[in-house]
Amino acid sequence: MMGVLNHLSTLLLLSLLPPALSHVVEKFSDVKDCEKFFLEGTTPNLPGILVGGTVQDQNRYKPICQFYKDRYRFATLHDTTNRIPVFSAYTFTGKVVGRPSQSWMIEPQLEDLKKQPDMKVDNKAVTHQAVDTDYENNNKHLDRGHLFPCSHALDDAAKRSTFTLTNAVPQNEKFNRGSWKTMECRVRKYLVENCKDNNNKIKAYVVTGAVPSKSNTLKNRVNIPDLMWTAYCCYNNNLKQWVAQAHWSKNVQDTNKKTLTPETLGALEGELKNSYKVDGFQVFPKNCPRTVILSVLEDETGRNLEGVEEVEPGKKRGREGSGEGSGEGSNKMARTSGELKECDDEDGCDCDCDEK
């Protein structure tokens, strides 16, 4: 009888919590609607962390099928030791402009409810994830940086679902509000115009992650990552092939006019190898190209062309900060395409959706 009462009290407590995202699982494949956030249902291969869809240290890393209101919205692999996500994965199918008035949420299933009956988002007794008070009044000028960006969400409910601290890392505020924000907006426009399947429907698979630092922390609790990275893979109906693109940058204050140059998926996987000091990283399945990148080229009349540029394996395409490609590589299967605009107010890019 006492066990039944304890179970009922736990359910009652859960019902009183804010609409947190509450499906911690052993494997992402345990939930069919969670698998859809990964291309071909294949999760990233991260040596020592996630291999073949299996978490290597199940006491530390927790797969979360992020559920908000009536459906699954995205997937996150969360590091309970560093109290930050390893990555968040989602499918991009369109967007709406605007930032909702949404408070940040936590994940109650990561905590021991019996020992921590007060699950307020500012409770320091929450041991396996960040809380609001970690970020508030910090003297390091750090934002709650989204991995699944609010600005990439399809509707209002999806936008709100991104405001969970298991989807955020401490990110330098000038970086978050500068080059990273601009990159997210450019990528969003890129996906809308270039990632359309055979039914002319927008669809792209995106994975965004953070490489933790060795010892740099926010208020001695939350790891401040050294590196932020993101990549997408989608089918391009114009080119009749899969295309991929990646970006990454150190989590430091932006320099003036810094631009994050698009890079190949293979170059990103090489960067992750260097950061983690281990080989075998695979963000997407093998049908996503590693050495070519969808790019905007110009013909002799100055018209924009959509094309595929080949880059030497393991090499970066351009110089970070310059906003320019190397100019090397071959233009294959170039086709006319709509102009890819800069991210600015006139473009309606809603660049401020993810700040703070």
TrEMBL record:
Region (Disordered): 304-356
Keywords (A to Z) from UniProt: Signal
Gene3D superfamilies per the UniProt record, alphabetical: Extracellular Endonuclease, subunit A
Domain DNA/RNA non-specific endonuclease/pyrophosphatase/phosphodiesterase intervals: 70-274
Residue ranges with Acidic residues bias: 342-356
Superkingdom of the source species: Eukaryota
Composition skew (Basic and acidic residues), residue ranges: 312-322
Domain ENPP1-3/EXOG-like endonuclease/phosphodiesterase: 71-290
PANTHER family: ENDONUCLEASE DOMAIN-CONTAINING 1 PROTEIN ENDOD1, ENDONUCLEASE DOMAIN-CONTAINING 1 PROTEIN-RELATED
Name of the featured protein: Endonuclease domain-containing 1 protein-like isoform X1
Protein's gene: LOC123738288
